[in-house]
Write a structure and sequence with these properties.
The complex is a heterodimer. By secondary structure, chain A is an all-beta fold. Helix content of chain A is 0%, strand content 50%. Chain A has no helices and eleven strands. In chain A, the strands form two sheets. In chain A, strands 2, 4, 5, 6, 9, 10 and 11 form a seven-stranded mixed beta sheet that branches. In chain A, strands 1-3-8-7 form a four-stranded antiparallel beta sheet, with no helix packed on it. In chain A, strand 4 and strand 5 form a beta hairpin. By secondary structure, chain B is mainly β. Chain B contains no helices and eleven strands. In chain B, strands 2, 4, 5, 9, 10 and 11 form a six-stranded mixed beta sheet that branches. A five-stranded antiparallel beta sheet of chain B has the order 1-3-8-7-6, with no helix packed on it. Chain B is 0% helix and 58% strand. The chains are: A mainly beta, B mainly beta. Chains A and B meet through strand 5, strand 9 and strand 10 of A and strand 4, strand 5, strand 9 and strand 10 of B.
Chain lengths: 115, 111
């Protein structure tokens, strides 16, 4: 079964450094998402992306965050200057459509630790 | 603002018995609800869903019930198996946009 893959599985960085989290969505999917889960808290929506542009973003997704689809397969999340509170598990997800009965397919996540 | 709530952070059930996981929501504009299961070190995986025009959806051992007037849904697993032990997230969406997740309930099925 096709799956969403994320790299790396763990990323440790110093506060203030830039990080790029990478995702390869399912190949025929058109909608891409980033979610995150801070330890012990709920899964939170960050951003959705379609047709090479952001379609929706949450309050969490401020100017420090950006997303890109640099080629036909990768979808990246960049955090320009990481803060301690950015430490979380980041999940990439994709879907074929964005219809009312669509479900998301998630990757296994990248655990980001900001020291 | 918790639009989707799962008030039980954990639940323990004996193998073979029924597991009932509950979820409440506040936004009456949600029209589609999903349950995801998450094992440690893995991403959430889709389990079962229900449209707001239905009150029940069944798939094997899993049944989701929706009570729109109470803004409440529940997931029933029967019979529960040890492999069902995971964190279960309730999620809601309007028109398939911006899925809102609950905080999750950790289910432990005891052999």
């Amino acid at each position: 079964e096709p799956e969403v893959t994320q790299t790396p599985s763990h990323q440790v960085t110093q506060m203030g450094q830039e990080v790029i989290l990478r995702c390869v969505p399912i190949s025929n999917h058109l909608y891409f998402y980033w979610y995150r889960q801070i330890l012990g808290q709920k899964v939170e929506f960050l951003v959705s992306f379609y047709n090479n542009e952001i379609s929706e973003k949450s309050e969490i997704f401020d100017d420090q965050f950006s997303v890109e689809r640099p080629d036909g397969s990768n979808f990246t999340l960049k955090i320009r200057s990481t803060k301690l509170e950015d430490s979380a598990m980041y999940f990439c997800a994709s879907s074929y459509t964005q219809g009312p009965t669509e479900k998301l397919f998630f990757g296994s996540g990248t655990q980001l630790s900001v020291l | 603002d918790q639009q989707v709530k799962q008030n039980s952070p954990s639940l323990s059930v004996q193998e073979g018995r029924i597991s009932i996981l509950n979820c409440d929501y506040t936004n009456s504009m949600f029209d589609y609800f999903l349950w995801y299961k998450k094992y440690p070190a893995e991403g959430p995986t889709f389990l079962i869903s229900i449209s707001s025009i239905k009150d029940k959806n069944e798939d094997g051992r899993f049944t989701v019930f929706l009570n729109k007037s109470a803004k409440h849904l529940s997931l029933h697993i029967v019979p529960s198996q040890p492999g069902d032990s995971a964190v279960y997230f309730c999620a809601a969406t309007r028109n398939g946009q911006n899925f809102v997740f609950g905080p999750g309930t950790r289910l432990s099925v005891l052999p």
